[in-house]
Amino acid sequence: xxxxxxxxxxxxxxxxxxxxxxGRILARSTCLACGAAVKHDxxxxxxxxxxxxxxxxxxxxxxxxxxxxxxxxxxxSQLPSAIIHKPARLFEEAKPLVGGLAERARxxxxxxxxxxx
Length: 117
Hints:
The protein is α+β, with helices and mostly antiparallel strands. It has 2 helices and 4 strands, in the order ββββαα.
């Protein structure tokens, strides 16, 4: 989570806001003074995140080659750890998207059970 001073549409003043990102995409901004929140539509956020992830994956080989050219020993020494930890970091990054899908599925199942479906 990050914080930044932003103009709040509700307060009308520059106030501290809590910023939540999904990957490199700003998902939500919440004014810490009044609680007003501005957030991405979930479907739009998911589409933007997947596009961004695709771009990052496509450019990863080039970025790795630049790193190995600049600092070969450092690159080699950090590679095993990166291979182990990167999948967990990607999962943590995408968890807000996955969590929203899981919650909607649970709510849908409860509604269907209540209706006897």
